[in-house]
Amino acid sequence: MLMPEIDPPLSPRGRKRDPDRDIAILEATIDLLAEVGYDGLSTAKVADRALAGKGTMYRRWPTKTDLVLDAVAHMKAQQIDLEALPDTGSLRGDLLALFQPSDSAQLDRTSRAMAGVVSMISQMPGLAETGDYSIFAPWIAANTILMERAAKRGEIPAAADIALAAQIIPSMAAYRALILRVAIEKDLLVRLVDQIVLPALHESTAHPSRR
Amino acid sequence: MLMPEIDPPLSPRGRKRDPDRDIAILEATIDLLAEVGYDGLSTAKVADRALAGKGTMYRRWPTKTDLVLDAVAHMKAQQIDLEALPDTGSLRGDLLALFQPSDSAQLDRTSRAMAGVVSMISQMPGLAETGDYSIFAPWIAANTILMERAAKRGEIPAAADIALAAQIIPSMAAYRALILRVAIEKDLLVRLVDQIVLPALHESTAHPSRR
DNA sequence: CCAATTCGATACTGGAAGGTATCGGAACAA
DNA sequence: TTGTTCCGATACCTTCCAGTATCGAATTGG
Q1: A174 in reach of chain B (CB within 8 A)
Q2: Topology at the third CATH level for domain B18-78
Q3: How far is residue B135's CA from residue B143's CA, in Å, rounded to a whole number?
Q4: Which residues fall within 8 angstroms of residue A204, CB to CB, at 6 or more apart?
Q5: Domain A81-125+133-211 in CATH 1.10.357.10
Q6: Residue A101: exposed, middle, or buried by beta-carbon count in 10 A (0-12, 13-18, 19+)?
Q7: Residues of chain A with pLDDT under 50
């Protein structure tokens, strides 16, 4: 009978793959992505920075695109943990605390890498639909959760447009990172929370001019 | 005496340059920038689409980067005219009218071209500082003017954080165009104006939780 | 008419980069 | 020990592309 073994690799005899090489290559990819963008990133430079051979890379990722996408996924995994969100008792405290843990330098590197990914999307029609690449999506999700908790507490009206309000800070961060290419400062975050997001949520009653 | 003529080109004898070629090339550049991004854009493809020879391009722009930057400037010139902003009497009407004139298709092309520019910035350290490339900057300026006019009318308190509020809609547009790659719909704009921007401006009194 | 310049088209050059192949050495299983 | 796989390194191939050069035709001023 044909196909005697569907899963033949039962005896991996030779040397084993070093998992450290994976993360070294992925980290080098993120670094370069943040520095020179997707097209400026060459596989040779990645291998160079990771102190790896190109063969080691291509044994794991068949193409440059696969490598970058996996690097972005690896970066996302290091981001916000939706299971362990801040819980300070007030929505204001929660939103401000959401930024605190990750030092701004880390956030800056992440943002710049994201800018590199944008260029990749431009050349890959169909990739945008998946949305798997976006760093900002989990952050919007975190904002949503915090706001829904506040609504359940009665801190903000149930009629508030949380879906929209949760996008304000992330979209502003995206704008600054991608276009302005400046890090988001603590001061700006406080202004966003106190003068934009919280007023919008509280005064969620429609506000058509004055009527 | 040396330097007899500082501006010698007083007798341009031969055939004259056709100004139509300039705009044809710039338009083709914007189109391709929106379709394939900066790195996916080749000078050969631009010349091809513009029905021009490469020599005609390089006679005008010494390098690909110069061409793209000029194309972006040309695109910006077709955008909002800060001298002829809407004046409906209410800030709400003005903000909503700011979007109306430009059909969404045009806005979509502009946004996608902007996404292509982002990739260029990633590879050109120092270009981000100039800010000359950003399509969104004039739009923020327009928002600022409309809001300042409303403040002068007494429609919104003078203490409102206009500088910040003016960035909300443009940054959201940038996020959707660059990351989500979807056009901004009229419905979303109305929600942004009524439930975020206007409440933020009216209730500009600090809102720290509840204190 | 004539010289100068522009036009579109095309061939060419030099370099950069994705991906493959190979090599000597190391780790690991039988 | 031996065969297999992984490792870093490097040479190599192929494709793509920015930028240049050239050609014949068209336009324009002298």
Answers
A1: yes
A2: Arc Repressor Mutant, subunit A (1.10.10)
A3: 14
A4: A156, A157, A159, A160, A161, B195, B199
A5: yes
A6: exposed
A7: 1-9, 204, 206-211
The answer to whether A116 touches A46, Cβ cutoff 8 Å, is: no
Which residue among B118, B170, B204 places its CB closest to the CB of A118? Answer: B118
B22 is written with which tokens? 């300039």
Reported CATH class of domain B82-205: mainly alpha
- Strand stretches in A92-198, DSSP E: none
- The residue extents of the domains of chain A are 18-78, 81-125+133-211
Contact B195 A180 (CB under 8 A): no
Rounded to whole angstroms, the Cα distance separating A60 from B193 reads 48
State which amino acid sits at residue B206.
A
Phi, psi of B84 (to 5 degrees): -125, 60
Of the pLDDT bands very low, low, confident and very high (cuts 50, 70, 90), residue B1 is: very low
B199:A195 CB<8 A: no
- Taking only the tens place, the pLDDT of each residue in A145-158 is 999 999 999 999 99
How many contiguous H segments (helices) and E segments (strands) does chain B have? 12, 0
Task: Give the per-residue pLDDT at A210.
Answer: 39
At B131, the pLDDT band (50, 70, 90 cuts) reads: confident
